Amino acid sequence: MIGRLIKYGLMFVVLVLIQVLVLNQVQVSGYINPFIYILFVLLLPVSTPKYLLMVLGFLIGLSVDIFLNSLGIHAAATVFIAYIRPLVISSISNREEDRNEYPGLRQNKFLWFLSYTAIMVFTHHFILFYLEYFTFSHFFTTFLRILLSSVFSIFVIVLSQFLIFRE
Q1: What is the SS3 string spanning the chain?
Q2: pTM assigned to the model
Q3: Which end of the chain is more exposed for a tag (fewer CB within 10 A), N or C?
Q4: Domain boundaries, the chain
């Protein structure tokens, strides 16, 4: 239990630092903004209670908001994906036996992890970018930004599963 707390606490801090210090400096014409901090919510154990998922999602989103001075939009988007996470996992898993306690790439099939990550990242980015603009006047420009940022974020998350998170 203590080992798990240390592992997830360290993951929390490292992902926020990578997001704030490295990935927020990566912007391609304002269209590609990778967000890897949501990997924390994605990799929490499946048996994590929903209220704890939402609290942890709020805390990591708020941490990024504090560093970026972004008025809670990261917290809102992350709480939303924490809320829908059990539904997404149950809808992409065929049977109860297919579900693994740890939703990482090493414990699940590649296509399962890719679809899980794609749904969660796209949903997060959709909420985040439309809350950021708070208007639908530039709907297609914002949607293009969502698509490009989602593809790049998914690539970075899957790559991190191969390189770092080998549990």
Answers
A1: CHHHHHHHHHHHHHHHHHHHHCHHHCCECCCECCCCCCHHHHCCCCCCCHHHHHHHHHHHHHHHHHHHCCCCHHHHHHHHHHHHHHHHHHHHCCCHHHCCCCCCCCCCCHHHHHHHHHHHHHHHHHHHHHHHHCCCCCHHHHHHHHHHHHHHHHHHHHHHHHHCCCC
A2: 0.89
A3: N
A4: 2-163
